[in-house]
Structure formats: structure tokens, C-alpha cells
Amino acid sequence: MLTDFFYHLRARKLPVSVQEYLTLLKLLQARIMPPTVDDFYHLARMTLIKDETLFDRYDQAFGEFYRTLQAALPDAKEIPLDWLIKQFQKNLTPEEKAAIEKHGWDKLMELFKERLEEQQERHAGGNKWIGTGGSSPFGHGGYHPEGIRLGGPSAGNRTGVKVWEKREYKDYDDQQELGTRNFKMALRRLRRFAREGAELELDLDHTISSTARNAGFLDLQMVPERHNTVKVLMLLDVGGSMDDHITRVEELFSAARSEFRHLEVYYFHNCPYESLWRNNRRRHSERFDTWDVLRKYNDDWRLIIVGDATMSPYEILQPGGSVEHYNKETGATWLQRLLDNWPKAVWLNPEPSAYWQYRQSIAVIQNIMNNRMYGVTVSGLEQAMRMLSK
Asked: 162: helix, coil or strand?
């Protein structure tokens, strides 16, 4: 099994060496961990994966391998608890969904405080208490048009306006192999070159022709090195609904790393606020004040914001509207500050443009961006790069 696991990781283009594999075997023989899947996952990752940017690719490969093992095992005789809990989730008709009244921000927070004081036990289903399934505005795994999710995963409706849990995100993999060169070619429209410095670069074409004219004696021809002078600041939305777009954003990120010599990257969730971060694994401990970022990069930089702009409008327009913390100033205020500091800015949206009209938050962001929102497609990128080149 472990040999198959080793070759499975290699097949997924993870640079795992034989020596690292042998080290993993020695650690397993030393019995330094309990015999659980979770502990093996962490031990194998610590031993085999040397680069944090490959953690996400390792997670996907590990999941594929584990599902293969699960499929080979005999069916369990007991019904899983997760399956039983999911049965409490209602398949609500459009009429039933329309009948559930939206509470509004202030009323929702007031009701949540009341439920915390009143509730004494666990609940599943129903439309009032904090629990799983059902149509209560508090809990997880159910449906409500404006709710607070806590204690578990989303049911996929993406209608939560607040999330009460510590969520972990993964950095986008900037080494992702592109299936097409189109992203690179589209981004290349923004590059500007300038001749700078001393004669450092070999002019191959003129060296060949000059050597031929010189009866075969080598005659080196040098030209000033060409420098890519474009400076790009990229803000990447991560987590939540952006999980649906990981592959496309990683392709875009890889292309940007390849094309822009001067590229600085920060992360945010849903909407930029008073702080940003560079590493998602340390985002709770290592944050950068947005004011410091605004002061660090002058207006020579181009700003590219990448996100699906799919969120509760409260997150943009309401103080305290962030799903993860209390923001004293609105997301719209911070977004406008970014645009004032970097007038040459665009928003790239990986969500298919056909769905934009159904997302109220997208319309709000488009308005703030003065309609400088483009799809993460070849044509969308070309339009965005033309806008940034002006």
C-alpha cells in the first residue's frame, strides 16, 4: 500500500524522493504516532513535502488515494452519523424558501444572542434553534436566505452572512502547470520593456551575422539588457466560494508569476478590509496592515484584484459585516482607498459572467470598480490588460 502511495504522489507530479519515502517507513516503524488516517496524513506531509506551496496538491493527491482505498473496503454495516444528520436537511421548494423571511442584519444579530442565552441542548432540524439541517437562521447544513453558520460545513447554499468558526485556507500553487499558454499571452499585453544599464545581454542574431562576415572568427555583439518594468500588485480572494475556482485561479497565478518580474501578492477573504496576509497557514498570526500596504507601493504599480465577488452585501456595505471578524469600516471604504491609491486597477472574476446578474454583491463591486470587472477568460484578460496599459 505504501509503495502504491509513493508512486501515486509521483504520478501527481509531487517531487517525492526515495530517501524521503524510506524516512517515512522508518518513522512508521518507530510508532511515533497513533494508527489513524489523520495522523498518517500529517506525518507523510511533514516527511515527503518540502514546499508549502505544494500542500494543496498533496491534499488532493492524498484524498484521491484514500478514496481508492475506501472503495476497496467492504461496505460498513452501520449507517454513518453524518448521513443521518444530512437527512434533516430539507429539500425546500421555491415557495417554501420564499416563505422564510429575511431578518435583516440588526435583527439577525439580536436573535442570535437570544438563542445563545435560551438554548440548553443540541438540535437538528427545525426553524428556530441553533443546530443542523432545517431552516433555522443559526447552525449549519440547512437553508435560510440570511443566516449565521457555525459548528460545521455549509450545505452549499452560500447564504450565510456570518461564519463563526476558525477557517483554514491554502495558498494558491504558483507552480501549477498550465494546460494552455493563452493566459500567459493575454497577460503579456501588459508588459513594458525598457533598455537599462550596461551592455549585459548577448545579441545572438547580430553575433551570428557579424561572425559570418568576419570569415568565421567569433565577433560577439552585446546590447543593453531588457528589463520588464511593469510592477503588479495582486490581491487574491481565498476560501469559501472561491474553492470552486481554485484550478483557474492557480493557472492565472502561475501565468502572472511567469510574466511579471515585479509581482507582489497578498490574500484577503471576500472583500479587502483593514489587514491582508501573504501566507494562509499563518494568516491568524502574520497580517499586514492595509494602510502599510497602501504606503509601501506607489502609483506606478498596477492593481489586480482576483475574486468572485460573491458574498453578502453586508460584507461590502455594513460596518461589522465581515463573516470572520468585526470590521470598523466597510469593505466599500477600503476598496475605494485601494482604487484611490492605484488608479490603474481591475477586478478579475472567475465566476462565469452569465451568473453575475444574479449576485447582488457583484453589482455592488462593479459599481465601486467603475465597471472595471472582467472574467477570467482569454478575452476578459485581454480587455483587463488593455485597461491597465492605458
From this structure: strand
